[in-house]
Structure formats: structure tokens, C-alpha cells
Design a protein that fits this description.
This protein is α+β, with helices and mostly antiparallel strands and about 190 residues long. It has 4 helices and 10 strands. α1 runs parallel beside α4.
Amino acid sequence: MKLAHGSLVILLHAGLAFANQAATPPSPVLSAPVASVSVGQVPPALELSDKRGGLVKGNLPWNSTELQQGAKVSILFYVAPSQKDLNEAISDALKEAKFPEEKFQSIAVVNMAASSWPNFMIESKLKASQEEFPRTRYIKDKEKVFVKEWQLEDDSSNVVLFDRKGVVLFVVKGKATPQQVTELLTLIRTHL
């Protein structure tokens, strides 16, 4: 097909359409609102199941509403496989602090879509990590759900601390400073 000079081909999400440069572009497709994770707020519920991901142990679904059940203070690491060591200072500080298991939990969500590694390789490493660190809940995010729905940073390391009711107490996107590590530990101790 040959187009006249000055014509423009527009590929629409719903299909193909041809338009002239002078034509008015179509309205953008509206999607569900996205909420950023903010201190003092409970983020919108999200669920990882089936193709979107879920728990490593048992391949069961995981829903963020379990953070609101009042049982434990929770720390959530959302990490791209290539950035797993970026916030090692936080991990080391948590190991050293030895917070009581009945009051504190650690959740590690792996942004599997941020890796060029095949999913079976990542899942194999996650299963080994789950066995080595049984207190941590390992979760697979296969479709960048946390990036899309909570606006966490993609291809990075994010750390979010929740109180017992699921209210965000602390957020760091990227590498935490030593001052942020200290602040995080203080917040955990305060809310246990």
C-alpha cells in the first residue's frame, strides 16, 4: 500500500486505523487509577495469582489485604533480580535485630518481568531462598503489578514498611541511606 505524502499511519491499541495528519488524534484509552504508596496511607489492594504471580511456597495466590489483618508489622522488599543486593544493609540490619517472629514479618516480592533470565531460573533460586529463609514469604510478580498499581520503581529495589493495620510507615525507592536504615529500625521497634 502506498500512502500520499503527508499521511500518517496510527496504530491504535484496539486495532489498526489510518488517519491523515490533519485529523484529530483519538482520545486516549482510560484505565483504572493508579495510587502511589504513601506514608500514612493503606495502599489499594492488589492480588497476585495465576499468570500474575503468587507465593513461591505452594504456588498459591497472595493478596496485599493480609497486611491489614493486625497480626504483624511487615516489611516488603520489591526487587528486580539484578538489584537484589542494593539494600543489603537493610537485610543485614534486620538479621542482626532479630525481631520476634510473632510480631514481625518479612516479605520479598521479586519483579520477575524486570529480568532477562528465564522464569524457571528465577523460580528455582526463589525456592532455594524460601528454604534457606523460611520466615520470609517469597512472592513472584510476573507482570510488574506493584510497578503498575503501587508505582514502585521498576528495575530497582523498593522497601515498604507497614504497621499491623497495613498503613505505610516508611518507603524507600532505590538504595537506602544509612540514616534511612536507622529510621526504619526505629519505626519497627516503635510499632512492634
